[in-house]
Write a structure and sequence with these properties.
The protein is an alpha/beta fold. Helices cover 45% and strands 12% of the residues. The strands form two sheets. It has a four-stranded parallel beta sheet, sandwiched between helices. It has a three-stranded mixed beta sheet with strand order 5-6-7, with helices on one face.
Length: 275
């Protein structure tokens, strides 16, 4: 099949949003949800409402960027507090943790959408469908829809379309929730999430904008893109000091580099295997 042009995919997205009529966009500030929120605002104006879920799993700089983007683009925007930390099934942190997080999101955002007869829309793209994403199931079961999927957008398409529309988020590094840094089976706590956030913030101040700090008790495992590994080694002392300032005792570097969904892959062991 011939590849569909980006302009045609943007038109398809606009058509889908017009069909929905009123939407509430789950707006995390990442490239996908930002693109969806921007296009929804362009197409639907006051009938598009961007909502950001605020909780200990959202880094403070991400919430601040959501606010900044809403101001820059003139979005109708509301931050809402979610309470996934009060759900024992979320805190236990098994491989379906994201299901319980999205269920909480929908429980909070759903009534906002219902009050204006709107549909909750998420920035899920075609590439997201291939990974372990139980949160998508929770959202789908509760009536959310995925317009980027309907319009045929991959992650690369989202970035290309965002650049074409002049959105500064076109090359924003992916920033999954802080709980994604915690290996399955390790209980998620507010203190743990805060420690990860402090470590990542300290490393970002050193110039590493795209990274993950994976939490293993008193050990931090840092992931950066492979081409940045020499930079980490070059300022090794600063990296160690920055990470230890967040309370870690040991600092390690993952030589395989940054991989999205890394902990999902680590949990996928053949039957009968041992950790």
């Amino acid at each position: 099949m011939p590849e569909v042009a980006i302009d045609d995919k943007i038109d398809a997205l606009r058509t889908e949003l017009r069909r929905l009529g009123r939407v509430v966009v789950a707006f995390s500030g990442g490239a996908d949800s930002a693109f969806l929120a921007a296009v929804a605002h362009q197409v639907l104006a006051a009938d598009a409402h961007a909502v950001t879920a605020v909780s200990p799993s959202l880094a403070g700089d991400e919430e601040a960027d959501c606010r900044a983007l809403a101001n820059e683009w003139g979005l109708q925007w509301t931050p809402v507090v979610t309470h996934e930390m009060e759900r024992a099934a979320y805190r236990v942190n098994d491989i379906d943790r994201c299901f319980h997080c999205k269920a909480e999101l929908m429980d909070v955002v759903g009534p906002i959408a219902a009050s204006s007869r709107a549909t909750v829309v998420l920035g899920v793209n075609l590439d997201d469908l291939g990974d372990h994403r139980p949160g998508q199931l929770a959202a789908d079961q509760r009536g959310a829809v995925f317009p980027l999927v309907s319009a045929g957008f991959t992650k690369a398409d989202v970035r290309a379309a965002s650049q074409a529309l002049g959105l500064r988020t076109w090359n924003k590094p992916a920033a999954a929730c802080l709980a994604s840094r915690v290996p399955y089976g390790t209980e998620v706590t507010v203190a743990l999430l805060s420690q990860v956030e402090r470590a990542e913030a300290a490393l970002k101040r050193l110039g590493f904008s795209e990274l993950r700090v994976r939490h293993y008790g008193d050990t931090a495992r840092i992931e950066v893109p492979i081409d940045q590994l020499p930079d980490v080694i070059a300022c090794r002392a600063d990296v160690v000091a920055a990470t230890k300032s967040a309370g870690y005792r040991y600092v390690t570097i993952d030589l395989e580099g940054l991989r999205s969904g890394n902990l999902n892959h680590a949990s996928a062991r053949p039957q009968g295997s041992t950790p």
